[in-house]
Design a protein that fits this description.
Helix content: 55-70%
Structural class: mainly alpha
Radius of gyration: 21 Å
Shape: globular
Strand content: under 5%
Order of helices and strands: EHHHHHHHHHHE
Length: 285
Amino acid sequence: MGEAHVRTLDDPSAAPTAAGEPADRPDGPGRLARLRTPRAPRLWFEVLLIAVSYWTYSMIRNAVPEQKAQALRNADWIWRAEHALGIAVEHTVNHAVNSVTWLIVSMNYYYATLHFIVTIGVLVWLYHWHPGRYAAARLALFATTGVALVGYYFFPLAPPRLMPDGGFVDTVVVHGTWGSMASGNLASMSNQYAAMPSMHIGWSLWCGITIVLLARAAWARVLGVLYPATTLTVIVSTANHFWLDALGGVLCLAFGYALACAWYGRLPHRLARYAVAAGPAPLGV
């Protein structure tokens, strides 16, 4: 996109490319290596990329056939599997938290808002304070989100609150809060049977890992630990996900990090913090 190629500042012993090849090689492998070298992010490009990517993700996710009957059968299967594993406590948690009105209402709004606000906030923080690591971390997040679409297509899953005989409380409907794009008046705008994997967990865990590994302040690292843990509590309390949906989100994130590591040669937090322009890219690259 016309971006300047970069060389890391705080790792002078490292090779100038992720593949360990000279940056000025004119042949194919050298060009590939330059593509795999972290670049200084451009604000206009990042804003456009995130907007287009989220629009595409939402369009594809909501275009996946809802397959209600199959989604409900899969929910029954997940519920039976959790009983067999001894972890089927979602019903108990849902009813217990729902009895505390102020708490469940807060969770409804948490579910609807922080998923986006915190993720965007961490991206902005990375862009400003860790530009050399930004592209790799963003790739991990995007790959996590992309592979989730495969789960939505091949494994439609009804959330617990939509199981007709599950006895779960749809906390958004009961308390009349705007807490889920898949409940109440907003249900028609979102695929209600795309619960596996949970991107609330995938995204929040990405945020938490990023903060814990890169933040210097102890209080920030504590928040990095608490955020995905709180999100897990919220998605179960509001009956939007099963425990196993959360596990699906973790597996998607593992794929995202594996892809980022394979492309850049190391995990995002192990890349240099800063990057500087090393001159314009050669023509044809």
